[in-house]
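Below is how a single chain appears once it has passed through the pipeline. First comes the sequence as given, then the structure the pipeline wrote out for it. We keep one example in the README because the format questions we get most often are answered faster by looking than by reading.
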Amino acid sequence: MSDDIAVGGGATPTPDPDGPDGVRMTWNSWPRSKVEASKCVIPVAASIAPIRASPFLVVLPYAPLRCKPPCGAVLNPFARVDFFAKIWICPFCFSRNHFPPHYAGINETNVPGELYSQCTTVEYAPPPLDAAAPPPPPVFLFVLDTCLIEEELGYVKSAMRRAIGLLPDHALVGLITFGTQVHLHELGFADMSKIYVFRGTKEISKEQILDHLGLSSAGVRHGAVTGAPRYTKGPQPNGLHPSTSVYRFLLPASDCDYTLNSVRSPISFSHIFEAGNRALRCTGVALSVAAGLLGACVAGTGVRIIALVGGPCTVGPGMIVSKDLSEPVRSQKDLDKDAAPHFHKAIKFYDNLAKQLVNQGHVLDLFASALDQV
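Resulting structure:
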């Protein structure tokens, strides 16, 4: 099918090292023995990027055909198909599924695009169910680590502003900064810089986050209060965002450039970098605040939490190493030997956070760099 795609100007396309499925492995060759496998210091893993841009990606103009609940897997080239009985067998749960009526013409020579062997990754672009109702704007919440030297922090802010400049004008943008504490910025309050502070040493639940912000789940849902008018987005006629709306923490990308430039981190660099100690970084609490806020207030909306982290979590829930530099960051061998003191607590915390994000249908992008550990 890729042969049918014309390349403009007759130029030869650049080979894709990740292949059509966007899969990158952590190894070049598979170990041939247990001895070789024991010498591997890097864990066996694969990075998959199914939503990356590719000129050879096949776009199907209809909705995917899914396996019966609770599986929900999508019809794919690895499914077994009985063309006579018009059923397909899921390769994950082995359930037998009947093709819907509009697949009545399927046969060995007439199959849908997702059954072609070269279409292991496809993009679905179904027509909107209700063209009159526009989809809600996407939300991008930046979680910025301020435990950096001033020069590095300046580079990070510059990169964040460039990223926001690439977003659609109607996309909503929010900001959380964290160090020893978590600071949620109310970007919709234009008169002055307004920040909600969360302690970085204590685990906080979604309900506590909402109570702290005046968005209690008992009275507020999707930006509305029981018995009050529903505010969907944007300010009130007087120019102010309603105090019970999550949109006071989010601004359209076209309007937030000046606001983000005026944000000043309340972190004092003098007490972050103490001699012989790592920076106190409460990454776990920052991610909990981001997930709790967006999950309770804009659940079901397309959301990406973009975390820009400059080092390991050293304080509060989710910490993986203490602040003392004499304690090295655990390696893969330490994990195999169960010699990492904070591992089990961190795994439990991040597993719960991952389940919360999955249930909400939200995405967490984590950009991490810790050059002081190299």
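The first helix runs from residue 34 to 38.

See the next section for the split statistics.
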